[in-house]
Design goal:
Elements (H helix, E strand, L loop, with lengths): L25 H9 L4 E3 L6 E3 L25 H12 L1 E8 L6 H9 L12 H5 L6 E9 L2 E9 L12 H21 L13 E6 L8 H10 L5 E5 L7 H17 L16 H12 L3 E2 L6 E4 L2 E8 L2 E4 L8 H11 L1 H42 L3 H4 L2 H43 L1
Parallel strand pairs: 3-5, 3-6, 6-7, 7-8
Antiparallel strand pairs: 1-2, 4-5, 9-10, 10-11
Helix pairs in contact: 5-6, 9-10
């Protein structure tokens, strides 16, 4: 038989306290490993032993060779995410369009709520002289721990009256008032808790029974496209077939181009984006204006519950891309471009309004300063003596020189235009 080496010795521990025999076996070893003052019961002889905790060697200091190049700012996105989720988000949506185009139904379908529970529809007599007004409704939505304070600005009465020439005025005034209020709060002393009520997006509903945009539509869009992000929506698109929807979209885009109206511009995708996101972005751009159908009714079709509209000839599935652009509009407005709509409002539209306000304030200050200077000069007794005859002559000469320079500039412009006309005539003669 081969000689086997002895087993390795057990780890040393502190000797037991005096006053009792040592309990042997596995229980003593387990007690030593656990390292706590414990009472161990031995099944063989029912003897108890109270042991001291073992003394472990001090842990070694971990080496940071692997994390030598790690600084820590890679966690900044996580910090921003936690802070943003804790603060919550705000979004203001304006809905404009005449009655009967499904605006309320679409908003309820988008955000799965009921914002218009107690709405009363006006009768015919009330609509004859009805004016456009503004109604605000706010709801708090929470999804997966993210809170959103949604404000929907509705414009009942728009386009319902016989004379709709000034229907656009209420919308533009409301947008300017929110910009002005934000500018005042931003310029004040307490800027910590500024409430942002600026309109981040305007959904303008176009009726499906027209051939293109009406004059009332063009008047409003022309006055709003430099103040807010406008997104055109064709309401109740189930009135049209696919070919009619395509032709209506082409005519609307052509009218916008002819009138030099610019809607919300989608940002370009980065080169490092995946192919699925790029394909989705191309589909969203190709769907403008969105032809949508809204519904708050849940129907059961082929064993599946869908949100749709029941007709004698079939069911229109709101969430089917073949029937409606509802999913594309919800993806654009909520999932992919909500933050970009807010950034565009802050960086483009509000900055334009802010620059105009600062320019007006500066011009007013200059006029007041000039007025005070003239008043101070006229109040002095020696005003006539201050400006001598020589100074007056010099001022007159300067004014004449300035007039002559303006005349020379105009003459040069005319000569350039006549020269260009002659060149065009010569070119046309050569081409013949």
């Amino acid at each position: 038989m081969k000689h086997q080496p002895p087993p390795p010795p057990l780890p040393l521990s502190q000797p037991p306290l005096m006053g009792g025999p040592v309990a042997g076996g596995v229980a003593s070893a387990i007690s030593s490993i656990n390292g706590s003052n414990s009472v161990i019961s031995n099944n063989n002889n029912s003897e108890t032993v109270k042991c001291r905790p073992p003394i472990y060697p001090k842990p070694k200091t971990p080496s940071f060779d692997k994390d030598r190049d790690y600084i820590g700012f890679a966690t900044l996105p996580e910090q921003v995410h936690r802070k943003s989720v804790k603060r919550g988000f705000e979004f203001t949506l304006m809905v404009v369009g005449e009655s009967g185009l499904g605006k309320s139904t679409l908003i309820n379908s988008l955000f799965l709520g009921d914002l218009y529970k107690n709405r009363q529809m006006p009768n015919v007599e009330e609509r004859i002289e009805k004016t456009t007004k503004v109604e605000k409704k706010t709801m708090d939505i929470e999804e997966r721990g993210v809170r959103l304070r949604l404000t929907v600005v509705d414009t009942p009465g728009f386009g319902d009256a016989i004379n709709c020439e000034d229907s656009w005025r209420v919308c533009t005034q409301y947008i300017d008032e929110q910009f002005r209020q934000y500018f005042t709060d931003e310029s004040g002393l307490n800027r910590r808790n500024i409430q942002d009520n600026r309109v981040h997006c305007c959904l303008y509903f176009v009726p499906p029974w027209g051939h293109s945009l009406r004059q009332m539509d063009l008047d409003l869009i022309r006055r709003l496209h430099r103040k807010v992000n406008i997104v055109l929506v064709i309401g109740k698109a189930d009135c049209l077939n696919k070919q009619e929807v395509r032709k209506l979209k082409e005519r609307i885009l052509q009218d916008l181009e002819d009138n030099h109206i610019q809607l919300y511009q989608f940002p370009e995708c980065d080169s490092d984006e995946d192919d699925d996101f790029k394909q989705q972005d191309r589909e969203l751009k190709a769907s403008i204006p969105f032809a949508v159908v809204g519904s708050n009714t849940i129907l059961e079709v082929a064993g599946k519950k869908v949100r749709g509209r029941q007709y004698p000839w079939g069911v229109v599935n709101v969430e089917d891309p073949e029937h409606s652009d509802f999913i594309k509009l919800r993806t654009f407005l909520i999932s992919t471009h909500m933050q970009d709509l807010k950034d565009t409002t802050q960086d483009v539209h509000y900055e334009n309004f802010r620059a105009q306000c600062i320019s007006q304030i500066s011009q007013h200050a200059l006029r007041e300063r000039g007025k005070l200077k003239r008043d101070s000069i006229s109040s002095t007794n020696g005003f006539d003596a201050a400006i001598s005859e020589t100074d007056r002559l010099l001022l007159q000469k300067d004014e004449e020189i300035r007039r002559m320079q303006d005349m020379l500039t105009q003459m040069q412009e005319k000569l350039k235009q006549t020269h260009l006309m002659e060149m065009k005539k010569n070119d046309s003669v050569i081409d013949v």
